[in-house]
User: Fold these one by one.
Assistant:
Number 1:
Amino acid sequence: MPINQPSNQIRLTNVSLVRMKKGKKRYEIACYKNKVLEWRSGVETDLDNVLQIPAVFLSVSKGQTAPTQDLAKSFGAQTAVHDIILEILNRGELQVGEKERHAQLDRVHHEVIDLVAGKLVDPRTKRVYTPGMIEKALAELSAQGGAQSNHATGGGPSHEHDKASRKTGTADHDGADGGGSAGAKDPPGSHLPIWTGVVTTRSAKSQALDAMKALIAHQPIPVSRARMRLRITCPTQVLKQTTKSTTTKAAHDDADDDHHAPTASPARPATVKDRILSYIEQVETQEVLGPEEWEVVGFVEPGAFKPLSELLGVETRGRGRIEVLEMAVVQHGEGGE
């Protein structure tokens, strides 16, 4: 029976474990909480700030270090302990405790709330909402999303009845004329984005985009994307040229709303200037700078930035320029716009 002495017994508590199984042996390293993810993402570069002790263990909870013979057999005799630690740290399985998991989820949650609160505004006043109001609205959507998910998975007699109704092509109400089953399949709002809450497996930015889509679609509070403020310059000689597409952005938007192909206006084809102004919701200034350059400053929806950039690149052959003056225009004061 081995005698546990200070030389071969190292007891560590309050740690994050990274484990790796190699050569039929399981090895562990002891790290500081929250530092492993920072190391793997590149935020932390000092190994001393990640490891609680620069050693490889067979069991951290027991304080049992890995024998040199086992390390040489598993990783190779020429592999240094430092390189073994790096391999386990970079490729091993992170054991996350309950408190650490909760802290990570809470951190991502607050990051998502802050991102959403900085991008959405009240469409009437153009003022931002407080993070508390955004959090409350998302909590309401999360409850609705959970209920919709449970309804979609089904269960119980009502689910069996719905399946039987769809199978026979009948509806619960009389006078459906065979169309009731189609309505049952696609209830109102079934295709809207659903928000079910924050997870730790996705980036905060991508989850914030999903949250904004859900808030805009369901409108638990009146919200819209904060507009961008742009400066667009274009040579005056190309402003009156006819574009390859004779429809403006408004015509395309109307076509999307009506679910049919856009039709060109027979009155006159769209010019480059018409196409540019169709993307701008509010013109702040518009002037001719000298004999050869036209400039307009205005506000556009974030979704219009990419097609507007492509329009300038194609129609002006790279001579037009677009400059972002403000990524998100919001009102912070008491007065309106």
Number 2:
Amino acid sequence: MSETGGKGVTASEAPRESAKIFTMLENNPEVMNDLAHRLGVTKELSFHDVYSLYDSDMLAMVPRPVFALLTTVPMTEAWKQDRDAEDAGLESYKGAGPEEPAIWFRQTIIHGCGLIGLLHCVSNGVPSEMIVPGSELASFLEKAVPLGMDERARLLSESESMYQASEAVAQKGDTEALKPGEDSINHFVALVKGLDGQLWELEGSRKGPLNRGSLGEDEDALSERALELGIRRLIDIQRKAGGDLPFSCIALAPSVE
């Protein structure tokens, strides 16, 4: 199952690429937890490493329930062909307002995909109800949610507080950050269980949020069904093309003291 969701209006003029150039974030718990908590996600939630998508013992190490997965995936030719074929049949997203089944941000920010991936994880599902009132994130979402796709992208690109928060954690990764003008082959993809019980695939460079199918009440974002509908689907696309898909994955779940 794959479709864009929501109703609403977009701005009449698409936003231009943001003048700000962000420092690419590394997809690891240290970086993303610092950013999430700086912005106003409750410290009752944290990101945790996911070391395997198939080994039951390693999967058991992740606290449950898992509300979202934040992954990075390289743009292989096989995945690009699959994306292009899927996007060709979709209209650009027109969702806006609190009735949206998934809050989605279009990416216009250079190297801003890590920040957008984090926003997708914490702005949807159960985590969206665990944001500290009066925080920077709460204030930002109050402004962003009523807006259409283009206006929302413009709000994010012009937010100095979001930029400063992202830059403050950007040097915490284990690898050297990309320099301005350098490109990454990796895309941040968030896989989130929405309040509607659907698994949403959220990436700022697609045409909108993608509904990958329904999850049961006892199935979280790291359940067998969610993995098959989400990240394992991408791995299978590459395997059918004759190769492996290197990826990173962290899970948003209850914090562990």
